[in-house]
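Could you help me review a protein record that somebody else here produced? My question to you is simply how this chain folds and whether the tokens agree. Thanks in advance; the entry in question is below:
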Amino acid sequence: MCNYQANPKKMNQERFSELIQSFLVEKFPEFTKNVNYKDDKSFDCDLRNPTNEFSIWIATYNSEITIGLEDPSGKTDIHTHISCYEEEDINDALTNLTTEINNITKGKTLLYHSDRVGYQWTNDINLILKRKNTLENIRVYNWNVN
């Protein structure tokens, strides 16, 4: 993991976004093709999966990296937050972001749709399939294959 010259101080939104974007440019440049900055200096970006059915999105609001999936219906409810309030914590946050991106793109984290509960993500699809109701239909979306 790269060291982004973190200083032990609280970051403002502009600095936080700058650090995250620099990291993405270096490690995951495919995300930087559509970076959209907001008035508050936060940004969001996304990357469609190869089959164009869903996407990974990243946002930098309020000293948090938010990473999630936009499901095929266009909703972005499926996400998690990676907090980073001080610049000295940036490398840990970037390690967590890398893990989340890799889990999705390498098929460890899967998107699925249940006709009972809607879209969700999981790291254990076998457990989901084992617990499903008899009449419940589940469709699994993998980053590379659907």
About this structure: The helical segments are 13-27, 90-105, 125-131. The mean pLDDT is 91.
